[in-house]
Design brief:
Strand order of the largest sheet: 3-2-1-4-5-7-8
Number of strands: 14
CATH class of the largest domain: Alpha Beta
Radius of gyration: 22 Å
Oligomer: single chain
CATH architecture of the largest domain: 3-Layer(aba) Sandwich
Distance between the termini: 55 Å
Strand content: 15-25%
Number of domains: 2
Helix content: 10-25%
Structural class: alpha/beta
Length: 318
């Protein structure tokens, strides 16, 4: 099987083994941890930098450079695996199981069908599935004020987020968490579940179960960078959750001032001031470290990491 780089992998090396599908930093972390746990990975499917940039992939990782010397890598020519070249190459082998982590596209049915046991991925949201299917589930859950996440490890089916469950783990969203740390927690959970079950997955004798089949679906919509506009009239909690749900590696929450967008990357409640007469969006304190205290709808927000103009001062409006 030829990749789009100079590396190549023979199909027979993939047959009956574990193939990881992904292209982000958490894909690399998953692979490195799995190899530390002595889990044999037969192959990797990923995309190159150019394709990642065209598809606005956050935190892309060069898996060919990072692990290509140790694990055969196939670099796909289309993110959706829809190209004839991808179909020919990936149809030529029959792995036992696929692990999808850091791949933000649905896998085509023909590819799912090449795996003996199936392809397994993770979907984390505030409620057990099917409440919380769809796009950007962790971001949406934090924006909505969730205080815990259900991390579902499940087998992929043609319909998104609808497959049988291998494991469901619930964990708390702490006050210091943001989208980055929550993704890290999810990756750790995913690695642990695969560590426990990888032998059964390869053999094809794993026990799966349905998650709340009688509960109505709720599907999250895709989030775009323009959805990150912040409103200072919101409550402090809503603003803080909104910011931490979209911080790096995502585009970030932003405000518009003088017809320009300015990003806010980190904020926390500031429960010292009691003046309720200050208009939302007004700067009430400035600190030497560049952080600001801004009035919100029901209190004050400490804006601790941002790209706001450096000349802002007391009384300025954002």
């Amino acid at each position: 099987m030829a990749s789009t780089t100079e590396q190549s992998s023979e199909p027979e090396r993939w047959d009956g083994g574990i193939v990881v599908i992904g292209c982000r930093f958490n894909t690399l972390e998953f692979i490195e941890r799995a190899r530390h746990d002595k889990i044999n990975i037969s192959g990797i499917v990923t995309i190159d930098r150019e394709l990642a940039e065209r598809n606005s992939v956050p935190a892309w990782a060069d898996l060919s450079a990072a692990v290509g010397d140790a694990v055969p890598v196939y670099v796909a020519s289309s993110y959706s695996l829809a190209s004839p070249a991808d179909k020919i190459a990936l149809s030529a082998h029959n792995p036992a199981v696929g692990i999808c982590v850091g791949w933000q596209r649905l896998l085509p049915t023909w590819y799912l069908n090449t795996f003996k046991t199936g392809v397994f991925g993770m979907h984390a949201c505030q409620h057990p599935l099917p409440q919380g299917r769809g796009r950007s589930p962790i971001n949406w859950s934090v924006i909505e004020g969730a205080r815990s996440l259900h991390a579902h490890v499940f087998r992929y089916e043609e319909e998104a987020d609808s497959g049988s469950m291998l494991d469901v783990t619930e964990f708390q969203i702490e006050a210091h968490d943001d989208i980055h740390t929550l993704q890290q927690k999810c990756r750790v959970v995913f690695n642990e579940v695969i560590r426990k079950h990888h032998k059964e997955l390869v053999k094809g004798n794993v026990n799966l179960f349905q998650s709340n089949p009688d509960v109505p679906d709720r599907v999250y919509e895709k989030r775009s960078p323009e959805d990150g506009k912040l409103d200072w009239n919101w409550t402090v909690r809503r603003i803080v959750d909104f910011v931490r749900a979209q911080t790096k590696p995502y585009p970030g929450a932003y405000i518009i001032r003088d017809n320009k967008e300015f990003r806010i990357w980190r904020s926390t409640p500031f429960r010292v001031l009691n003046d309720e007469t200050v208009d939302p969006g007004t700067i009430v304190e400035c600190f030497a470290d560049g952080s600001l205290v801004v009035a919100a709808g029901d209190g004050y927000v400490h804006v601790r990491a941002h790209e706001l103009p450096q000349n802002l001062t007391y009384g300025d409006r954002l």
